[in-house]
Predict the 3D structure of the following.
Amino acid sequence: MNKLMNDAVMANFSQLEMTELRVVTNQYNITLLHQAPQDKRTE
């Protein structure tokens, strides 16, 4: 029973970790998108 709960918590945690990773990646992509036009202007 305890192991089962532990596995569930770990599965939930890794799911959260993946979501956080996706959010960070999205923010990075958005930052790149915002920087791209500025780079073209300086060329």
Summary: The radius of gyration is 19 Å. Residues 2-42 form the longest helix (41 residues).
